[in-house]
Amino acid sequence: MNIRYSFFMLLLAPLLACSEQAPPSSLNAQVLGAYPAEDAFQAVAVDADHFYAINNFRIGRYDKVSGEFQESWDGMSDKTGSIIHLDSAMVYEGLLYAAHSNFPQWPMASSIEIWDTRSMQHLRSHAFPEPLGSMTWLDRHDGYWWGGFGNYDRIIPPRLQAYGKTENTLVVKMDDEFNILEQWYLPEELLPRLRPMSNSGGSWGGDGYLYLTGHDHPEIYVMTIPEAGQTLRWETTVIVEGFDGQGIAWDRDEATSILWGISRGDAEVWKLGMPSISPP
Predict the structure, then answer these.
(1) Is 62 helix (H, G, I), strand (E, B) or coil?
(2) What pairs with residue 62 in β-bridges?
(3) What is the arrangement of strands in the sheet containing 258-263, beginning at the earlier edge strand?
(4) CB 85 within 8 A of CB 137
(5) Within 13 Å and on the Cβ side, how many CA atoms surround 223?
(6) What is the C-alpha to C-alpha distance for residues 136 and 146, in angstroms, rounded to an integer?
(7) What is the spatial distance between Cα 250 and Cα 267, in angstroms, rounded to a whole number?
């Protein structure tokens, strides 16, 4: 090998490494509305007429325009206590699908819980036989189910080891029976934005991007599925001042780019106007 070329590459290597690790440039979202919602602690789901505030074991249905509370499902009335940690949710064909886990219990267990949005009655459950972590979000896109399995660097007593380790967080693609067909890891340069927690929310935009959130930062990460390999591509970041991450939901009944999220600290559901991003 040419000595000058070798020396040049030796000097260039650190610069290339820094370039690969640098996070993408960011855009900004606009808060269009904030609605008080007692159960805005984990996530929000939305359909044509309502939004649904999600807590660990409660779901509240609200009028989408006025923000008026209508009805709720309360897991405290379930004497078995089988639902303990709901997370992100979405509405599909009149049913609300929510990711659920036994976090922070061990060993990890995850399920998908399903409600009728009109009666707010729990209908059925799908338990994963071998979960890949704690399921944190679920969405429907392009004829498939998609979801996230969170793993955490956080140590939860009395355990002395991390709860799964954040780098093991996965995004999965599933068939109609929730069988996992494909899975991807998050890019290494995104992990510091999630640690010691994990990916908390996910929703596919009509623009063809997958939007992900963490647990704490006022950021929404815009991702694409790679053409090859098992690591998602981080394209850009959308900043939402005062936002807490957590569960999000694209409004597929609005003509404009509307995303719903929560402000956990304020117990509010937020309606966000999202920036336009060029198609992937």
Answers:
(1) strand
(2) 51, 69
(3) 30-36, 268-273, 258-263, 249-250
(4) no
(5) 24
(6) 11
(7) 19
243-252 pLDDT, tens digit each: 888 999 999 9
Domains and CATH numbers, the chain: 26-273 (2.120.10.30)
Question: Hunting for tokens 């049913």 — which residue is that?
Answer: 95
pLDDT, tens digit, 9 for 90 and up, residues 149-205: 999 999 998 888 999 999 999 999 999 999 999 999 999 999 999 999 999 999 999
- Residues with Cβ < 8 Å from 255, sequence gap 6 or more? none
Nearest to 134 by CA among 160, 172, 97: 172
Distances 7 to 16, 20, 262 between C-alpha atoms, Å: 15, 21, 52
Distance, CA of 50 to CA of 246 (rounded, Å)? 19
Is residue 141 within 8 Å of 191, Cβ to Cβ? Answer: no
* Beta-sheet pairing, 210-213 with 50-54: unpaired
Query: 202 and 194 in contact (C-beta within 8 Å)?
Result: no
Locate 63 and state its tokens.
């009028």
Tokens of 92: 């599909």
**pTM of the full predicted structure?**
0.90
Q: Which two tokens mark 273?
A: 């106007």
From the number of C-beta atoms within 10 Å of its C-beta (0-12, 13-18, 19+), residue 246 rates as buried
